[in-house]
Design brief:
The protein is of the alpha/beta class. Helices cover 37% and strands 24% of the residues. A hairpin with a 2-residue loop joins strand 4 (56-61) and strand 5 (64-65). 35% of the residues are buried.
C-alpha cells in the first residue's frame, strides 16, 4: 500500500506544486492521477520514488516512510516508465531490459531467462526482438520494452508517467489494452499519470482528479466519479458526455433486465457481458426500442432506453 499523508511540495517562489495531498493506494490496483497542466500529478508521482522530495507530510510504502530508504535501493525496487521510454540507444532490447537485474547482481542465466519471460509477456518474442536496437522498433514496441524493463526485478510498485502520450491513437489504444491484460497477470500496484480523462477512466481502478495548485478535487472509482462529481471543477473537467462514458463502465450482467414472460424476444440482442453503451446502441437500432440480453445464446431479459438511463444514473 502507498499512503500520502498530508504531502506538500512547495517551490522557492511560494508556488504550490502539491498541497496537502492525502490518499491511499491499495496493493494491486491501478490509480490514475489526472488533471490539467500544472496540477501536480507528475510531481506527486515522482515523490513516491524520491525523484522529487516532498516539502512536508509523509509518504509510506507498505507502512514505511520512504525517507528512511536508501534512495538508490528505493528506486531500484520501483518500476518506472516515462513518456519517451528512455531506452539506451546503443544497447539491444535484451540489454535494456536487463539493466536493473545487472545492477542488483543477478547471474547471467537468471537474467537471460527473465528477459525472455518478459519479452514474451509484453508481446515481443525474444527470438525476434532481443537482439534489436531501439531505433529498429516502432514507438509502441519501444514502449513495450520500457514496460518490460520496469518489470525486470518484479517490483511490487510501478510508476507510469504519461507512458502512452507520444504514441498514435490506434497504438495507444492497443497499449492500454495490453496494460490491462498484463495487470491480470502481474497484479502490480500501478500509479499512472495522464492528462486524458478517457485514458484515466479506461485504466483506473480509482481516479485521483487534481486541480491547479496541487489540490485533490476528487478520488473515486471511475463510475462514481462520472455519476457523482464532487465540485463544479470536476463537472467541467469531465465534460458534457460524462454519462455516456459511464455507460461503457456498466456491464449488462449488473443490471436488472425485464423478464420476457412469454413475449417474443427482440430482434436486436447483446450478450450480458457487454456494456450499457452497447445496449443503448442496439436500442437505437431496434424497431421497437428494446434489446434482448443474451446469456449463452438464450435471451434472459429485455432492456429499453429508460431502463438504461436509470441504470446509468444510479
Amino acid at each position: 500500500m502507498i499512503v500520502f499523508d498530508h504531502v506538500s511540495k512547495h517551490y522557492g517562489d511560494g508556488a504550490n506544486a502539491v498541497r496537502d495531498l492525502s490518499l491511499e493506494i491499495a496493493d494491486g490496483e491501478i490509480v490514475v492521477l489526472v488533471g490539467p497542466s500544472g496540477c501536480g500529478k507528475t510531481t506527486s508521482l515522482k515523490m513516491i520514488n524520491r525523484l522529487v522530495e516532498p516539502s512536508g507530510g509523509t509518504i509510506l510504502l507498505d507502512g514505511r516512510d520512504t525517507r528512511t530508504y536508501d534512495v538508490n535501493q528505493l528506486r531500484r525496487s520501483i518500476g518506472y516508465v516515462i513518456q519517451q521510454v528512455g531506452l539506451f540507444p546503443h544497447l539491444s532490447v535484451a540489454d535494456n531490459v536487463s539493466t536493473v537485474p545487472r545492477l542488483v547482481g543477478w547471474d547471467r542465466r537468471r537474467i537471460r531467462a527473465r528477459v525472455e519471460e518478459l519479452l514474451d509477456l509484453v508481446g515481443l518474442p525474444a527470438a525476434r526482438y532481443a537482439g534489436r536496437l531501439p531505433a529498429e522498433l516502432s514507438g509502441g514496441e519501444r514502449q513495450r520494452v520500457g514496460v518490460a524493463r520496469a518489470l525486470a526485478v518484479d517490483p511490487p510498485v510501478m510508476l507510469m508517467d504519461e507512458p502512452f502520450g507520444a504514441i498514435d491513437p490506434i497504438a495507444r489504444d492497443h497499449l492500454q489494452d495490453e496494460l490491462l491484460r498484463l495487470q491480470t497477470v502481474v497484479r502490480k500496484t500501478i500509479v499512472f499519470v495522464t492528462h486524458d480523462i478517457e485514458e484515466a477512466i479506461k485504466l483506473g481502478d480509482r481516479v485521483a482528479l487534481m486541480q491547479t495548485g496541487g489540490v485533490l478535487a476528487q478520488y473515486a472509482a471511475p463510475a462514481e466519479l462520472l455519476a457523482r462529481p464532487a465540485s463544479p471543477f470536476v463537472v467541467d473537467f469531465l465534460g458534457d458526455n460524462r454519462m455516456v462514458r459511464r455507460l461503457g463502465l456498466i456491464r449488462l450482467a449488473d443490471v436488472a433486465a425485464t423478464p420476457l414472460d412469454g413475449r417474443p424476444a427482440p430482434a436486436e440482442r447483446v450478450e450480458e457481458d457487454a456494456s450499457l453503451r452497447d445496449a443503448l446502441d442496439a436500442v437505437l437500432r431496434s424497431a421497437d426500442g428494446r434489446v434482448g440480453v443474451e446469456r449463452g445464446g438464450e435471451v434472459v431479459g429485455v432492456l429499453d432506453a429508460e431502463q438504461i438511463r436509470r441504470a446509468a444514473a444510479r
